[in-house]
Structures are given as structure tokens and as C-alpha cells.
Amino acid sequence: MNAAPCDSAGGMYQLSADHRPNASCNGSSPPGNWSSGDDALLLPTFTTAAKVRVIVTFILCGASAFCNLAVLWAAHGDGKRKSHVRVLILNLTVADLLVTFVVMPVDAVWNLTVQWLAGDFACRLLMFLKLQAMYSCAFVTVVISLDRQAAILNPLAINKARRRNRAMLTVAWAMSVILSVPQLFLFHSVTIVRPEAFTQCTTRGSFAAHWHETAYNMFTFCCLFLLPLIIMITCYNRIFCEISKRLKMDNLPPNEVHLRCSKNNIPRARMRTLKMSIVIVLSFIICWTPYYLLGLWYWFFPDDLRVKVSHSLSHILFIFGLLNACLDPLIYGLFTIYFRKGIRRRYCSAAAAASDGDNNTVVSGSFTCGGNSSAQKERRALSQETLVW
């Protein structure tokens, strides 16, 4: 599962399955040059499926970079102290940008060049960064779930939220780095000499036995996906139980939860943030679950998988997982007034500055992008959504 999971130019599969040396090879040969005694060994080729994967990955990389940078751009324009929820969203944006600028380009270029051309140091470093980016996305999503659980189950402790979230984010980022460190020692640049010289970034020779490799892959799978999934499901199950209990106590029908917030002590802004976080978690689960399940199938039944699963499907599922980094900023824009207002405010400020420079005039204090009444409405809307961002 090394880096999402174990996919480095299709590295979740062995050479015979995906036509490229496995990113987590099952052999126990020492690192360095090796020659295969198997006449059936096939060197990788730039297949049509790989070409489509490269094109789509670059498109997703551009879209994700634009959307996530827009989130940071909108947030940067506000000098006010950021709410604790907004800090969580910004951390998830940074994690998505790591996926955008590390996982996506490395995957696309590696498929494009077929073999590894960047050397041993880059092999170790980039495999470390790839897994660290994946860990950070998963762990920050868990922190968001824990924050929403605390907000609903213990709303009176909201004053402690900022300190609590800072501690959880510190642990999340630290763990994402610590758990990725083995990549620096397991991956290395390896060259085969038959049927021709071919270099690949792989873990070949790093494991004394096949079960050691399987154990490492399963450990990574549990930390990267299974454990975060269990925590997130537990959090939202407790949230739904708490909301149901309050609705029963207040004798409110479910469809009125957003209309009569004063009775069940769940403000509209908090419910909006809860809905946003649920969609973020669902996006993570829906995008990555198929690919991780395919990885589990390969680790335990590799021969069966080679027969029943086409190479194109593995490409499609990995691309589908990368889509998660593009969806997060769209979810922010859908559920948060602040993000939309922030984009509009930054755009209007830039337009006003450009106009001032072109005309060499001083912009009067009454100038706004939408007039004074619009600015007042914006301020009122933002004040109502302080719990959202």
C-alpha cells in the first residue's frame, strides 16, 4: 500500500499484472542490479490506459491546484482572527495541495517515463512525500470529525475548541510524517539487466520474507484508511444519536431540525458546518474505498486478481481516488458563505486596485464592488456564519 496504496506508476501490482516492476516487489533479492531467471518477464510499456491516466491526472492536478489555491487566496484576504473550523479547513486544503503537487505529478510523470529516471535519493524522498500527503489528508479529515463530535456533544466547551484542535492538528501532522519515515528506507532505485537494462523505484530486497511485506502493507492500510474510517463512523454515529435524542426530547420532527434550532440547542451555523463535514468525510470514503479494497484483494489473492481485473480498472480507481482533492474545495464553496464572500471580496479588491492604477485616481471611501448596502449585507451574513468558518 505504499503511497496510495502502494501505487507508484501502477505499483500495486506485480510486473506480470501491470507490466511494470512492482513498487512493493515480493522478491528477497538484495538491492542493486538483478537479472530475472523468468523468461516470461515483461518490461513495462506505455499502454493506452496509461496514456489516458496521465492525461486525466494532469487535468485533475490543474483543477485541484486552482480550486485549493482559491481557498487559500480567499482566506488570505481576511485579516481577522480565523475561527477554529476555518483553521481545520485550511489544514485540509494544505493536505490536498500536497496530494496535488506531489502525488499527482509524480504518478503522471512516472507513468509517462515508464521507468524511474530520477535517481535513488529522489526515489526515497518522493515515496516518503507521497505517503505523507495521503496520511495528512486522512488524519486531518479525522480531526474535522472529532471537532464536529465535540461541538455537538459538548457545545459548552466551544471556548476550548481552538486549543483542542491545535493539539489534534499537531498530532495529525506529526503522525503523518512519522508513519511515512519507513518509506525512506524501504524504497530504493533498482536496475535489472535482463531482458534489458531497466531501472525502477521499488522495495525489492527490503523485506526478508513475503509476509513481512504483507504485514507492512496491512499496517499502512489500517493507519491510512481503516482506522480513520472507524473513527469517522464512530464520531458521526454518536452525533446522529445525540441529535435524535434531542429531537425526541423536544418532540421535533426530523424535517424541522433546521427551522427550530433554539429548542434543540443546535444553531443553524453549526448544523451547516456539520453537513459540510459529513460531505467531506463521505467524499473521502467514496473516492478511496474502491481502490483500497482492490489493494486488499491483490495482497491476499494476487493470482485471482490478475485474471479477473483489467489494468484499466486499476487506473480508473486510482484516478477516482485523486478526485477527492478536487472535491474538497468545491464542498467548502457549497456550504460556506465565507468562502464565496471571500472570493468576491478579493476579486473586487483586485479589480479596484487595477482600476485605481489605470486611472491614477483615488478610490473614494464609498466605493465597493456592490455598493454600501451590499457590503452591509455581506457583513451581516458573515457575522451569522462565524461558526461555519
Automatic annotation (TrEMBL):
Keyword Ubl conjugation included in the entry's annotation: no
Presence of keyword Cell cycle: no
Domain G-protein coupled receptors family 1 profile residues, every copy: 67-332
Any one Gene Ontology cellular component term annotated for this protein: plasma membrane
Pfam families: 7tm_1
GO molecular-function terms, A-Z: G protein-coupled receptor activity; peptide binding; protein-hormone receptor activity
Entry-linked PROSITE patterns: G_PROTEIN_RECEP_F1_2
Keywords: Cell membrane, Disulfide bond, G-protein coupled receptor, Membrane, Phosphoprotein, Receptor, Transducer, Transmembrane, Transmembrane helix
GO BP annotations, alphabetical order: cellular response to hormone stimulus
InterPro entries: GPCR_Rhodpsn (IPR000276), GPCR_Rhodpsn_7TM (IPR017452), GphnRH_fam_rcpt (IPR001658)
Membrane-spanning residues: 52-75, 87-106, 126-146, 167-186, 218-239, 278-301, 313-339
Gene3D superfamilies assigned: Rhodopsin 7-helix transmembrane proteins
Domain of life assignment: Eukaryota
Topology in membrane: Multi-pass membrane protein
Coiled-coil intervals, chain numbering: none
Cell location: Cell membrane
Stated name of the protein: Type II GnRH receptor
Gene source species: Betta splendens (Siamese fighting fish)
